[in-house]
Amino acid sequence: MLLHVTIVSLLLVAVNCDSGSYILPDEETKDQQWVFCSKPTDGDSIFNYSIDALNSTAGTINFSKFKGKPILLVNVATYCGSAFEYPLYNQLIDKFGDKLALIAFPSNNFANQEPSADPNEIYNAIKYVRPGGGFVPKFPLTVRIDVNGEKRHPIYSFLKRSCPSTRTRIIDQFYLNYREINSRDIRWNFEKFLLHPKTGQPWKRYDQLFTPNVIIPDIEQLLKEN
Ligand SMILES: *[C@@H]1O[C@H](CO)[C@@H](O)[C@H](O)[C@H]1NC(C)=O
Ligand SMILES: *[C@@H]1O[C@H](CO)[C@@H](O)[C@H](O)[C@H]1NC(C)=O
Ligand SMILES: *[C@@H]1O[C@H](CO)[C@@H](O)[C@H](O)[C@H]1NC(C)=O
């Protein structure tokens, strides 16, 4: 019975997820698939930051250990339509191995699409529900964080300082689990940032709809430049 209730509530959250399609890039206002970021004026770098891994036995992720690698960051949520992207990130790891640093940040800032911060719940949900099929990520997830609003993680303040949004509109407050709105807010789950291997500074910010396989040429370019 309890299991039944849990499955039904998981399905309800999954259906809600599709409100994500409400904020497709806007043709009329010429929203973009990606934007270039500018250099942080204070010389700040991702190498100055660390965050706890979702898997507590994996300890803390200290970004300074990724010096010399392109770094791809994505905010994720299990019950988002874009959770179909999860296997595409594993394919990036299959392709680039440890030449690429790829980190996913679970967040519940949008429409309750990451309803629990419990590591077991997140790992089991991606394994059995979305994308399911026994999916195990080949890259680290962090503890659940806010990417926007008053409780946003400092890493996301850093990223957004350098990179404007790909979109002009912001979805109705009804879907947002935070209050303080900013034009640079992450618009939904599965936005990506690619950072430069030498400087650890943001290079490009990609819209939620720009899937990770399309980023491969950019990763290859950064590897060549390095
Ligand atoms: C961040 O890192 C850069 C480059 O290593 C350094 O110049 C800067 O002082 C650091 N900033 C902070 C706030 O630690
Ligand atoms: C990351 O590791 C380096 C080298 O061990 C250390 O100097 C630095 O303080 C650490 N940074 C953070 C933010 O924990
Ligand atoms: C957590 O990390 C440990 C040590 O690296 C590993 O053995 C374990 O499989 C990981 N658990 C999950 C759910 O990823």
UniProtKB/TrEMBL annotation:
Please name the catalytic residues of this protein. Answer: C80
Tell me the first and last residues of the signal peptide.
Answer: 1-17
Single GO cellular component term:
extracellular region
Q: Which GO terms describe its biological process?
A: response to oxidative stress
Give its localization. Secreted
The alphabetized UniProt keywords are: Glycoprotein, Oxidoreductase, Peroxidase, Secreted, Signal
Cited Pfam families: GSHPx (PF00255)
Q: What is its main location?
A: secreted
Return the InterPro entries for the record. Glutathione_peroxidase, GPX_AS, Thioredoxin-like_sf
Q: Which PANTHER family match?
A: GLUTATHIONE PEROXIDASE, GLUTATHIONE PEROXIDASE-RELATED
Q: What is this protein called?
A: Glutathione peroxidase
